[in-house]
Structure formats: structure tokens, C-alpha cells
Automatic annotation (TrEMBL):
One of its GO terms (cellular component) is plasma membrane. It comes from Phreatobacter aquaticus. Keywords: Acyltransferase, Cell inner membrane, Cell membrane, Membrane, Transferase. It is found in: Cell inner membrane. This is Lipid A biosynthesis lauroyl acyltransferase. One of its GO terms (biological process) is glycolipid biosynthetic process. The keyword Repeat does not apply. InterPro entries: LipA_acyltrans. CDD domains: LPLAT_LABLAT-like. GO terms for molecular function: acyltransferase activity. Pfam families: Lip_A_acyltrans.
Length: 292
């Protein structure tokens, strides 16, 4: 009898192949059409609505439902775009406004690439949240990104193969992954991670007026190496295009000894993420239990 993990893995592989055969535009549009229909039947739909209602008490139910539909559309697009990630990134310095990607931050990436110093990037589950890592690798940064490994090892292998074509090095979250990030910073490379998920052993920060737990890894590493921390995000535009934005180094708060304050640094990163989410609430992943 074949193991269930293998069967699921093969189904995912076939699905990825079929979606990839559509090309990035049709694949993205397919995800946007199908996912809201399925999503409204899932318990995550209620979680998303409750989260939105608490975050935006001034909005009407009609407005909240419209945002929630956009959340499902964005998730569907992102999921299908995985299969076409290498075709999705088409930025060309010689034709900066003609492809799917637009950005004004190439000088920042080039400066970080050439300065011989370590740096940390933080991002959030916004738009297609894989694109900042793709951008860093495409612009020559020696980048290693932290990610959550899927539980199914066959699915994980397929996702890793896709990511490996476009995103540089990836390490799974957990103790071993963090140690690898330390090694990367020790050799003056760059690392990236998402900072908008719940961690029950995390530090308290305020997000949309309520206390949440934030993973302090980015701040702890910044404190240890006293290195710059930059935010990076993708914004989903019309016609399956994206704008990539990266911040200059944040002026992180420091303690009486002059070292980066971990809680204060995570609050600053979280506040940046909140600002991003407020700009495009339909592009953030409201479907998980961020507030507990």
C-alpha cells in the first residue's frame, strides 16, 4: 500500500505541472477565480472576517466582505504563481517599466550587494510574499531565507525545487535553521524572514491596537551582529504586475548600553508591517489566528 504522503505529493506535483502549463497570467487568474469559492466554505473564512472586523471597526460589513474576498483571491493567485515563479520574475534594468515587475530600489540592492557587510530583511505575508526573496537573489545579494517546511516531505521537495530556481538559499525554520542564519551573517551575507506570524514564546508587540506575540529572531540577530535591518514587500498591481519596495535601514531602538532593544525592534518592524497592511488590506493573509 502506498503511503498517504506519497499519494498527496504526487497529486501536488501533477497540479503544479498543470498550473505551470497555463503560464503565469492564466495560472494567477485561475487561482483568483477558484479560491474564493472554496474559501468561503472553510473555517478560515470566519477567522478572516473576525480579524478584519476587529482591525477595522469603522468599516461596514459590505466593505469587510469585499476585503475578505480579495484576501482569498490574493491567496489563490499566490498559490498558482508558485508553479510559474521563474517566469513571473522578468525585471530588466534596461526595460524597467515593461515587465511584470517594477521597482526603484535597484541602487539599494546594489549597495548592499557590494558593501561586504551583513544585513537582515524582514517581510510579511503580503501580495506574493515570495517575490522579495526572488528580487534579492536576482540583484546579486548573497541571500538565505528562512521558511516553514511543509509537513509532507514530497510536497516540501517539490516546493524546494521551485524555490531553488529563483530564490537563492532556503533554510527551514527551527533551531537548525536559525544556526544557519547565524553562519550566514558571520560571513557577511544577507538573510530574510517573515515576521508576521504568531510565536507563543515570542515577545509582546502591538498590532492593529491589540497585543500579539512576535518571533524575535530578526531582532535578536540584529542585536548580536549590530547589522542593518530592512523591510521588503511586494504590492500586487493590476494586470498581474507587482511593485517591489524595500526600506532603508530602520533606526532601531537601543537600550542603555547602546545595543539594539529586541522588543522595541520587533515593535518597529511590526508597525512597518501594519502600515503596509493598512495600505492594501486585501493583500495580507488575515486567515490565520494572529491574535490569541
Amino acid at each position: 500500500m502506498l503511503p498517504a504522503d506519497w499519494i498527496v505529493g504526487q497529486i501536488v506535483l501533477v497540479a503544479l505541472w498543470l498550473v505551470r502549463s497555463l503560464g503565469p497570467d492564466r495560472a494567477s487568474n485561475l487561482g483568483a477565480a477558484v479560491t474564493p469559492v472554496i474559501g468561503r466554505l472553510l473555517k478560515q473564512n470566519r477567522i478572516g472576517y473576525d480579524n478584519l472586523k476587529a482591525a477595522f471597526p469603522e468599516k461596514s460589513e459590505e466593505e469587510l466582505r469585499a476585503i475578505l474576498r480579495g484576501v482569498w483571491e490574493n491567496l489563490g493567485r499566490t498559490a498558482c504563481e508558485y508553479a510559474c515563479m521563474d517566469a513571473l520574475w522578468d525585471y530588466d534594468d534596461a526595460r524597467p517599466n515593461e515587465g511584470r515587475i517594477e521597482t526603484h530600489d535597484v541602487p539599494l540592492y546594489e549597495r548592499l550587494r557590494d558593501d561586504g557587510k551583513p544585513a537582515i530583511f524582514f517581510a510579511a505575508h503580503l501580495a506574493n510574499w515570495e517575490i522579495p526573496a526572488v528580487a534579492a537573489a536576482a540583484h546579486g545579494l548573497d541571500m538565505t531565507a528562512l521558511f516553514r517546511m511543509p509537513n509532507n516531505r514530497f510536497v516540501a521537495r517539490a516546493i524546494q525545487k521551485i524555490r531553488g530556481r529563483t530564490m537563492g538559499k532556503m533554510v527551514p525554520s527551527g533551531g537548525a535553521g536559525v544556526l544557519q542564519l547565524v553562519r550566514e551573517l558571520e560571513r557577511n551575507a544577507h538573510i530574510g524572514m517573515l515576521v508576521d506570524q504568531h510565536l507563543h514564546r515570542g515577545v509582546d508587540v502591538t498590532f492593529f491596537g491589540r497585543t500579539v506575540k512576535a518571533n524575535p529572531t530578526a531582532a535578536k540577530l540584529a542585536r548580536e551582529f549590530d547589522c542593518p535591518v530592512h523591510g521588503a514587500r511586494a504590492i500586487r498591481l493590476a494586470n498581474n504586475r507587482f511593485r517591489l519596495e524595500a526600506t532603508e535601514a530602520l533606526d532601531l531602538p537601543r537600550d542603555a548600553e547602546g545595543r539594539i532593544d529586541v522588543q522595541g525592534a520587533m515593535q518597529m518592524m511590526t508597525s512597518v508591517v501594519e502600515g503596509w497592511v493598512r495600505e492594501h488590506p486585501e493583500q495580507w493573509l488575515w486567515l490565520h489566528r494572529r491574535w490569541r
